[in-house]
Amino acid sequence: MAVDSSTQGTNPPAGSTGASAPTGLRKVVAASMAGTIVEWYEFFLYATAATLVFNVIFFPASENPLDNIIKAFLTYAVGFVARPLGGIVFGHFGDRYGRKKLLQLAIILVGVTTFLMGCLPTFDAIGYAAPILLIVLRFFQGFAVGGEWGGAVLLVAEHSPDKQRGFWASWPQAAVPAGNLLATIVLLTLSWTLSEEAFLAWGWRIGFWLSVVIVAVGYYIRTKVTDAPIFTEVQAEVEAAKKVQYGVFEVLRRYPRGVFTAMGLRFGENIMYYLVVTFSITYMSAHLEMNTSTILTLILFAHVVHFFVIPVVGRFSDRLGRKPVYAAGAVLAAVWGFVAFPLFDTKNDWLIIAMLIVGLIIHALMYAGQPAIMAEMFPTRMRYSGVSLGYQVTSIVAGSLAPIIATMLLSTYGTWVPVAIYLALAAAVTLVAVAALRETVGTSLRDVDAADREKFVEKVHA
User: Pick from 197, 215, 323, 460: CA 20 to 30 A from residue 67's CA?
Assistant: First the structure.
């Protein structure tokens, strides 16, 4: 496999301590972010539409507006169930054939499924076939996104200097709020320019159809980079040593602690995020009966701050260590719900946006360092599988269920208090995982591979 000439010879290889960012690394970061922005634009577009549109047009009418929102969130959860499967499949082939090829496939798959969502007929037109088709497309969308994250962050992490990995690998994480921001802008523009009737009838479809243009741009950018030198070297070793294994079963057998620690780290962070950016929309629209455009405007500003904060936190994780930064996020997450929801109840725009911004800053304390932490846990031969498994499996019991559980708690008890308790318990799980985490700041990926080679690979040849 050829190595990109713009990267080779300019980028300090994994295991070095380069102090500056070469042009090749910036190109890799841009390629990773381009695709991730596309895929999270489409993923968040679905999340917002589930609250504002799908609950109305894809299900029969209900007296309680929260009932159909819960049903729409169940279709939303299907994408999260598919994500671990996508992570496993993409991780297996990504460890074998390279990160770039799988990332190109992921962006095409998520683009096609999102475009088709915009073409679906409504419940009034075809009955229950409408939500069934929505669920099928949502499954394939989630499958593609499940394979996207691991490849995108590893493409950057494996190119990054050891002492700056937290900073550079956090940029693909910043692409998530960028994609969410793009989706919010599109939906906000449509809600401003169209009547509510027109928006529900056909206007919402425009956002999904626009994915074709965005996917084309992201795919083109990703054709301009190749895999990191450390991957091509290890790939050659694995091909030469036919008995050396990789993939999900090997990573579970050899590095179970890394996988389960990654899951614990992800648990509270993932629940926190979807309570802030998804459930808060439900809380303000259905419970507080606030205007849709107002809600989307407030969320938009919060996404802007989130985008800029993530790389800053990534830099701090390089300087202060992965554990203290992550632990601070978990502790603050446990408190956020008890402060935020009472301020939401005031319906004061300034207080609401302040709490949304604070919530996403707290989330960034946990989210920014994840790529570096997880990349440093696993050797190159199974890194894609390891990070995808640890990251995506957790989303089934965390992010996918968080809006559903929170909405059911709100519907049952009529108050935010159980929701805040739910978040606090999730944050406590993550805090335990942080305590079990080995500090990995400054770790050389080549040293990780050497330790794996000495401990496991050489035994195969004995």
Answer: 197
Contact partners, residue 423, CB within 8 Å, separation at least 6:
268, 271, 272, 275, 333, 334, 336, 337
Listed residue (215, 178, 216, 186) closest to 203, CA to CA: 186
Helices marked H in 368-461: 370-375, 383-392, 394-397, 402-413, 417-436, 445-452, 458-461
Q: What is the mean pLDDT of each run of 10 residues along the chain (462 residues)?
A: 37 45 76 80 76 75 70 74 84 78 84 88 85 86 83 88 94 89 82 79 84 80 78 71 65 89 95 90 84 82 93 96 96 97 93 95 96 92 86 84 90 93 97 94 90 70 48
Q: How many CA atoms lie within 13 A of 161 on its CB side?
A: 17
Positive or negative, the Cα torsion across 42, 48, 50, 56? Answer: negative
> CA 178 to CA 393: how far, in whole Å?
24
Residue 143 neighbours by CB distance under 10 Å: 24
Q: For residues 150 and 39, what is the distance between their CA atoms, to the nearest angstrom? A: 13
Half-sphere exposure of 420 (CA within 13 A, CB side): 15
Count the Cβ atoms, other than its own, within 10 Å of residue 64: 10
3-state secondary structure of 159: coil
Q: What are phi and psi of 81, to 5 degrees?
A: -65, -35
Whole-angstrom Cα distance, residue 76 to residue 360?
21
Type of residue at 224 = K
Judge residue 178's burial from the number of C-beta atoms within 10 Å of its C-beta, 0-12 exposed, 13-18 middle, 19 or more buried: buried
Please give the pLDDT value at position 138. 86
pLDDT for the residue numbered 428: 97
